[in-house]
TrEMBL record, chain A:
Assembly and binders: Component of the signal peptidase complex paralog C (SPC-C) composed of a catalytic subunit SEC11C and three accessory subunits SPCS1, SPCS2 and SPCS3. Within the complex, interacts with SPCS2 and SPCS3. The complex induces a local thinning of the ER membrane which is used to measure the length of the signal peptide (SP) h-region of protein substrates. This ensures the selectivity of the complex towards h-regions shorter than 18-20 amino acids.
Gene name of the encoded protein: Sec11c
EC number(s) per entry: 3.4.21.89
GO biological process: signal peptide processing
Stored PANTHER family: SIGNAL PEPTIDASE COMPLEX CATALYTIC SUBUNIT SEC11, SIGNAL PEPTIDASE COMPLEX CATALYTIC SUBUNIT SEC11C
Name of the protein in question: Signal peptidase complex catalytic subunit SEC11
Membrane-spanning residues: 36-54
Organism phylogeny: Eukaryota, Metazoa, Chordata, Craniata, Vertebrata
TrEMBL record, chain B:
Keywords from the UniProt entry: Endoplasmic reticulum, Membrane, Signal-anchor, Transmembrane, Transmembrane helix
Encoding gene per record: Spc22
GO BP annotations listed: protein targeting to ER; signal peptide processing
Gene Ontology cellular-component annotations: signal peptidase complex
Pfam families: SPC22
Family: Belongs to the SPCS3 family.
Protein name: Signal peptidase complex subunit 3
Primary localization: endoplasmic reticulum
Task performed by this protein: Essential component of the signal peptidase complex (SPC) which catalyzes the cleavage of N-terminal signal sequences from nascent proteins as they are translocated into the lumen of the endoplasmic reticulum. Essential for the SPC catalytic activity, possibly by stabilizing and positioning the active center of the complex close to the lumenal surface.
InterPro entries named in the record: SPC3
Annotated PANTHER family: MICROSOMAL SIGNAL PEPTIDASE 23 KD SUBUNIT SPC22/23 (PTHR12804), SIGNAL PEPTIDASE COMPLEX SUBUNIT 3 (PTHR12804:SF0)
Membrane topology: Single-pass type II membrane protein
Compartment annotation: Endoplasmic reticulum membrane
Organism of origin: Trogon melanurus
């Protein structure tokens, strides 16, 4: 015989058992305007807090990009593609041979993580330096701009101070597969908007 | 030993090129570079559970008329966890060309060679450590025109 709605737990109209997705949409239907606005505000607050934390990190470290993901294998075996690096860029920190710096070549967006192998510093603090990836045979002059032979302080995004392995892989996957990024954002957005605090 | 040649890897002006051969005796396990035969009684291990590798490098530091501070890395080596932490290297040639920015190596009496290393952890902070002990090397007053290596 057919089970009656009262016997099946969680069964409403339609007679089918409800999973968590159905619950979410049920919530959405039951929400009135005020609750919807509340959810939107909640969502906005989460986004704002995340942005504030990021901006705070930029201020504390002095670097425009305090957390970077290693994109190439030029610093292996120390750093692999997908590792996360934490940078500082204090103005008074001198650049010395052996340090790992993240720099941007003029005109290019992609930051490069390599080691400083030569510095020539004048008395007034002006410094020019040369970098090389640990895993590369030659120094970075081939990567610099046409005619540029040295890097300067202004090219530096930061000094690598700490690192976490593998964690940055998520960023690389999201870059290489944009559909994955949109799907992830859509799921996260839907969850935050629809989940009611009970 | 020093020559003055055109720096063919970089700018077109003539710069001083230095040639250095060196010996490295280092006991990285104990964090010290020792030049005598003392047995070290306090032993600490730099290769703990969180150390993936050490990046060692020999740098030459000196001052010239052109630049108040110059540092040039002459040689480097990656020492993985599990590698022999004691180094006995003799008659090593520098891995990288020792070009000065200008002509500051001629007659420069005080080039300091130091061994340092970058500790690369499995996760965490990346410290730079300088070994104790360094060597001062003077460069001659004249250029060599004969072939060196």
């Amino acid at each position: 015989r057919l089970a009656s709605p009262q016997e099946l737990p969680g069964a409403g109209w339609g007679g089918a058992a409800r999973g968590p997705a159905m619950d979410l949409f049920g919530d959405l239907r039951r929400m009135n305007k005020r609750q919807l606005y509340y959810q939107v505000l909640n969502f906005a607050m989460i986004v704002s807090s995340a942005l504030m934390i990021w901006k705070g990190l930029i201020v504390i470290t002095g670097s425009e990009s305090p957390i970077v993901v290693v994109l190439s294998g030029s610093m292996e075996p120390a750093f692999h593609r997908g590792d996360l690096l934490f940078l500082t860029n204090f103005h008074d920190d001198p650049i010395r041979a052996g340090e790992i710096v993240v720099f941007k070549v003029e005109g290019r967006d992609i930051p490069i993580v390599h080691r400083v192998i030569k510095i020539h510093e004048k008395e007034n603090g002006n410094i020019k330096f040369l970098t090389k990836g640990d895993n590369n045979e030659v120094d970075d002059r081939g990567l610099y701009k046409e005619g540029q032979n040295w890097l300067e302080k202004k090219d530096v995004v930061g000094r690598a101070r700490g690192f976490l392995p593998y964690v940055g892989m998520v960023t690389i996957i999201m870059n290489d597969y944009p559909k994955f990024k949109y799907a992830l954002l859509a799921v996260m957005g839907a969850y935050v908007l629809l989940k009611r605090e009970s | 030993l020093r020559k003055n040649v055109e720096d063919f890897t970089g700018p077109r002006e003539r710069s001083d090129l230095g040639f250095v051969t060196f010996d490295i005796t280092a006991d990285i396990l104990n964090g010290k570079k020792w030049l005598e035969e003392n047995i070290l009684t306090s032993i600490f291990s730099i290769f703990d559970w969180n150390v993936k590798q050490l990046f060692l490098y020999l740098s030459a530091e000196y001052s010239t008329k052109n630049n108040a501070l110059n540092q040039v890395v002459l040689w480097d080596k990656i020492m993985l966890r599990g590698d022999n932490p004691r180094l006995f290297l003799k008659d090593m040639k520098s891995k990288y060309f020792f070009f000065d920015d200008g002509n500051g190596l001629k007659g420069n009496r005080n080039i300091t060679l130091t061994l340092s290393w970058n500790v690369v952890p499995n996760a965490g902070i990346l410290p730079l450590v300088t070994g104790s002990g360094h060597v001062s090397v003077p460069f001659p007053d004249t250029y060599e025109t004969t072939k060196s290596y």
